[in-house]
């Protein structure tokens, strides 16, 4: 019995909602896994904010060209039809509403769509990168995340307590337990693992879940 | 017209103490390593230029390029979006010791501020950073019912960038994702010097393929087979080399 989804399974679930031909930006790290799980017959075009559209997988070790990297500074390859552009054009694609989907990680998400994913507080050296840009402009801004923190605290909250990345920007959250939409300042529960009860799910969620209509089963293959 | 500069030393000779310098590159891709190292050579020989404000996406990696400038104490302030890297220790230690100033700018805002600087637009409004700590103290205005943050242009005294082909008029092409900030910085600096992997005569670049028109470029210096910062870091390089006899061995 699955008690929670692995990161790969969360990424798989998020990938099922990406349409053929969609322009997609995947955040650095865990969200990059989404690219591996595109359903057969669909091909998204991936954008990386340092200036490439249409990139593919990492090259084999030893064949890296370090002028050809993604926003995480990892070596990539190009697919036929790829394009290069400078940074202002790249972020015009982001802010200008040209991307269909951005998928990001999160420390915290609030029921009004606020996202905290860039800073855990004032210690150390602050670094933001493109996080604050990516939450604006994409038609859908989805988050993929474990449902709770490493020490078991809710990540879905009434209000974020960590520094915000963006206000009211998230439209859907894929977690290790559920799929939740953000609508009218509320978490609307769309799917949950069949093995977890609504009460148990609510107990690990920091804001009220609204099961408007039928709640679907979150069913993901073993990966 | 011939914008070729015969040597790296001459290419960086005019940068004074206290200058604001934009440096192209996103991580190692597009970093003009030879121009940066020529600037370090000048600093080590003459004590100048110091007290620099450097604008780049990052704040150096390892002990080469911008990290080496910071390590030598040439940099008073970094303006960047992401002062972390595989090995950010040089910046991190100086920052935590209060020896270097940081202006943290979201990446797309950094790009647009530089573009605005080059385009003669003193300020603009962006949705980025609204409601966050990075918008504190900045004017906010509503357009069509949504709030936006006012950001100001960024300009520089000098830009040091890396390009692929450069003709004698300063027209430039770039190599793959090494383009990143360089076309914007070329516009935003009073004086832009590009190191080019190959200098060609006018006509050597198809006008359809020019990415940065020469009007934005003051000088080019040819550096065939340029170093790649990522490759240098993977080889644990440092600049200047700490123990040259070992490097030769």
Keywords:
heterodimer; A: 223 residues; alpha/beta; Glutaconate Coenzyme A-transferase; three-stranded mixed β-sheet; 4 helices; 14 strands; 26% strand; globular; B: 249 residues; seven-stranded parallel β-sheet; three-stranded antiparallel β-sheet; 8 helices; 26% helix; 24% strand
Q: Globular, elongated, flat, extended or rod-shaped: what is the shape of chain A? A: globular
Please write the CATH class name of chain B: Alpha Beta
Largest sheet of chain A: 11 strands, mixed
CATH third-level topology of chain A: Glutaconate Coenzyme A-transferase
**Weakly predicted, low-confidence segments of chain A:** none
The helix fraction of chain B, in percent, is: 25-40%
Spatial sequence of strands, sheet with the most strands of chain B: 4-3-2-1-8-9-10
| Distance between the first and last residues' Cα of chain B | 44 Å
The CATH superfamily of chain A bears the name Glutaconate Coenzyme A-transferase
Question: Largest interface, and how many residues on either side?
Answer: A-B, 39 and 53 residues
Tally of extended strands of chain A? 14
Descriptive notes:
The complex is a heterodimer of chains A (223) and B (249). With 223 residues, chain A is an alpha/beta fold. Chain A is built from 4 helices and 14 strands. Chain A has helices spanning 7-15, 87-95, 131-134, 198-203; strands at residues 23-26, 45-48, 52-55, 78-84, 101-104, 108-110, 115-116, 140-145, 156-157, 172-175, 178-183, 186-192, 209-210, 216-217. In chain A, strands 1, 2, 3, 4, 5, 8, 10, 11, 12, 13 and 14 form an 11-stranded mixed sheet that branches. Chain A has a 3-stranded mixed sheet with strand order 7-6-9, with no helix packed on it. The mean pLDDT of chain A is 96. Chain B has helices at 8-11, 33-46, 65-71, 89-96, 107-119, 182-188, 229-234, 244-248; strands spanning 20-23, 52-55, 75-80, 101-104, 123-126, 140-143, 146-152, 156-167, 189-200, 219-222. Chain B has a 7-stranded parallel sheet, sandwiched between helices. In chain B, α2 (33-46) runs parallel beside α3 and α5 packs across α6. The chains are: A alpha/beta (223), B alpha/beta (249).
